[in-house]
Design goal:
The protein is 26% helix and 24% strand. It contains 5 helices and 10 strands, in the order E-E-E-E-H-E-E-E-H-E-H-E-H-E-H. Strands 1, 2, 3, 4, 5, 6, 7, 8, 9 and 10 form a 10-stranded mixed sheet that branches. Helix 1 packs parallel to helix 4 and helix 2 packs across helix 5. The protein starts with a strand and ends with a helix. Bound molecules: hypoxanthine (HPA). Hypoxanthine binds next to strand 5, strand 9 and strand 10. Homohexamer. Dimer of a homotrimer. One of its GO terms (biological process) is purine ribonucleoside salvage. This is Purine nucleoside phosphorylase. It holds the Pfam family PNP_UDP_1.
Length: 246
C-alpha cells in the first residue's frame, strides 16, 4: 500500500506559509465537523495533507477539538501516517524553550473528551494495544531526517497531556515531574489513541515553547511563547519536509 502522510499542525502552525496549495479536500465524517478542511500541499519538495488542529486562525481550544472527526476525516482521505506538531512546556532539564522533542511515551491527564471510536454506540468494541503510543518507525524516520537536515532534536521524552486551556500550577508541574514526564502539552490525547484505533501510524514533533510553570524566575507570557514559535516552527517545518521527502 502506498503511504499518504498528513501533518496535523497545532499552536504556531495553523497554516503553512510558503506552501503551494494543490487541492482542498472537503472532509466527510460521521463524527461531525473536523477543525478545518484538509489541504493537499507541497513544501520544499514534500507533498502531504495538512490539517489545522485548532482550526483556521486558532479558534478551537484543546478540549473543544473534535478529535474523532479530525482523525476520521484523515482516515477517509486515505492517510496512513500522521506527523503531529505540538507546542509544549518543558519539564526536564534538557527540555528548554526552542528544543524540538520526539516523544516516545505519554501520560494522559485529560478528561471529558470524546476519546474513542469504540464507544459502544453500534459496531464492535475493541481494546487497542497502546503500550507504545507513538510509531517507533516514524520517530526513527524523524531522527534520520533531523540528522540529514542538520537539525538538533531531543529524540526521546514522555509527554504529559493536560486538559487546558489554562497552563498548569507550579505544584501540578512538580507532580508531572514526579510522574516521570519531560514535557507538557494539551493535544496529543485523545489524538494519538484515535489514530491507533483508526490504524494510522502516529508520531509527534514537539516544540518546547516555554518552561513549565514555576520552573523559571518569571511568569509565562504569550509574547515569550510567540517569540519561540517564530523561530522554532521554521525548524519544525524543515524537519517535516526532510522526513516526508526521505
Ligand atoms: N503547559 C501545557 N501546554 C502547553 C504549555 C504548557 O506549559 N506550553 C505550550 N503548551
Amino acid at each position: 500500500m502506498s503511504r499518504c502522510i498528513a501533518v496535523v499542525g497545532g499552536t504556531g502552525l495553523c497554516e503553512w506559509p510558503g506552501a503551494k496549495l494543490l487541492k482542498s479536500i472537503s472532509p466527510s465524517s460521521d463524527y461531525g465537523e473536523p477543525s478545518a478542511e484538509l489541504q493537499q500541499i507541497e513544501y520544499e519538495g514534500a507533498e502531504f495533507v495538512f490539517l489545522a488542529r485548532h482550526g483556521n486562525g486558532h479558534s478551537i481550544p484543546p478540549h473543544k477539538i473534535n478529535y474523532r472527526a479530525n482523525i476520521d476525516s484523515l482516515r477517509q482521505a486515505g492517510v496512513t501516517d500522521i506527523l503531529a506538531v505540538n507546542a509544549v512546556g518543558g519539564i526536564s532539564d534538557q527540555f528548554v524553550a526552542g528544543v524540538i522533542a520526539l516523544p516516545e511515551q505519554l501520560n494522559d491527564y485529560t478528561w471529558g473528551r470524546e476519546h474513542t471510536f469504540f464507544d459502544g454506540c453500534g459496531g464492535e468494541v475493541q481494546h487497542i494495544d497502546f503500550s507504545y503510543p507513538f510509531s517507533e518507525e516514524l520517530r526513527l524516520r524523524l531522527c534520520a531526517a533531523a540528522e540529514r537536515g542538520g537539525i538538533d532534536i531531543e529524540p526521546y521524552g514522555t509527554y504529559a497531556v493536560t486538559q487546558g486551556p489554562r497552563l498548569e500550577t507550579a505544584a501540578e508541574i512538580r507532580r508531572l515531574a514526579r510522574d516521570g514526564n519531560d514535557m507538557v502539552g494539551m493535544t496529543a490525547m485523545p489524538e494519538a489513541a484515535l489514530a491507533r484505533e483508526a490504524g494510522i501510524n502516529y508520531a509527534s514533533v514537539c516544540l518546547v515553547v516555554n518552561p513549565g510553570a514555576g520552573l523559571s524566575d518569571s511568569l509565562i507570557t504569550m509574547e515569550d511563547i510567540q517569540a519561540v514559535i517564530d523561530t522554532g516552527m521554521l525548524q519544525v517545518k524543515s524537519l517535516l519536509a526532510h522526513c516526508i521527502c526521505g
